[in-house]
Amino acid sequence: MRVTMIGSGYVGLVSGACFADFGHDVICVDIDQRKIDALNANKMPIYEPGLAELVDRNVKASRLSFTTDLAAGVADADAVFIAVGTPSRRGDGHADLSYVHAAAKQIGESMKGYTVVVTKSTVPVGTGDEVERIIREVNPDGEFGVVSNPEFLREGAAIEDFKRPDRIVVGSDDPRATDVMERIYRPLSLNKAPVMVTSRRTAELIKYAGNAFLATKITFINEIADLCEKVGANVQDVARGIGLDNRIGSKFLHAGPGYGGSCFPKDTLALLKTSHDYDAVQRIVETVVAVNDSRKRAMGRKIITALGGEARGKTVAVLGLTFKPNTDDMRDSPAIAVIQTLQDAGATVKAYDPEGMEAAKAVLDNVEYCKGPYEAVAGTDALAIVTEWDAFRALDLDRVKGLMNAPVLVDLRNIYKPDEAKAAGFDYTSIGR
Ligand code: UDX
Question: Where's the UDP-glucose/GDP-mannose dehydrogenase C-terminal domain (predicted)?
Answer without folding.
Answer: 317-418
